Amino acid sequence: MPPVNTGRLHTANRLETLRNCLGAQGIPPEVVELLLAATRSNSFAAYQSAWSAWRDSCHRGDNDPLSVGVVETLKFLSDSSKEGNSYSSINVFRSMLSSTLSLAPSGLSEVGKHPFVVKLLKEMYNARTPLPKYTHTWDPAEVLNFFETTATKEMSTLSLARLTTLLRCGELASIRADSIRFSQLEVSFILGKPRKTTTQHSGPSKRISVASWQRNEIICLVACIKAYIAKTADLCTAGNSEFLFIGSTRPHNPASSSSLGRWIKELREAGVDTAIFFCPFDKIGRRI
């Protein structure tokens, strides 16, 4: 295959740039889409911002964003730190560069693992060690006491699911309704997409189980999910029955991650300072 002019491949859109790079290497379009689908959408969003910063930096130095050396990479990361970017942001830049340049016909392979890059990031971490987001946390007992004395089982379902499973909004939104299994001692279910923090890359999705709390059904997730399913049974249609949580307004579509993220009213009512802990339940809590 003749050398490829990478100057014709890169655009302001990183996803389009990756398509161009893979296509230039003779990879069929349908295979390109499968390769790109292996990366999750939230990673694409974070990498797009990093790609824009990298592309602007290369243009200022009259460099090709897809065919630079380690020196340019080190300078970009160093300049990003001097501009006040956090260590976590710079680490995203490194990950973006590693995944992007490795796909370019003449790009660096795994630049993020280059010894100089690894050492630079290590020194940045030591110089500006990230601080924890919070120095204290909220008391889950306050929320449970609120549910116990005020809420109904249908109202508590979403918040209890977050408390007992530590799943994110998008993960809760993907709970498959047809996977839910009840027993006297627990409820179990399967997510419709891989967990963000999981290391599983093959095989069937793992089943998530939560034990019942028979001392008080109001704060028992098993009882709450049963009540929620019964409450929403008449609202289920062929278009929204795939997942557990559905919207509270017509046409009652499957609840999205952003929808669950807006449902935080109960937390304020329960005494959680949402001005400080804006996402203590990953933005979950509204009665549903």
Please describe what this structure looks like.
With 288 residues, the chain is mainly alpha-helical. It has 2 domains: 6-127, DNA polymerase, domain 1 (Orthogonal Bundle), CATH 1.10.150; 140-195 and 206-269, Alpha-Beta Complex (Topoisomerase I, Chain A, domain 3). It contains 12 helices and 3 strands. The protein has helices at 14-24, 29-37, 41-60, 70-82, 87-101, 115-127, 140-149, 153-165, 169-173, 221-232, 257-261, 265-269; strands spanning 181-182, 186-189, 208-211. The protein has a 3-stranded antiparallel sheet, with helices on one face. Strand 1 and strand 2 (186-189) form a beta hairpin. It is elongated, with a radius of gyration of 24 Å. The chain starts with 13 loop residues before the first helix and ends in a 19-residue tail after the last helix.
Topology of helices and strands:
Layout: H1 14-24, H2 29-37, H3 41-60, H4 70-82, H5 87-101, H6 115-127, H7 140-149, H8 153-165, H9 169-173, E1 181-182, E2 186-189, E3 208-211, H10 221-232, H11 257-261, H12 265-269
Antiparallel strand pairs: 1-2, 2-3
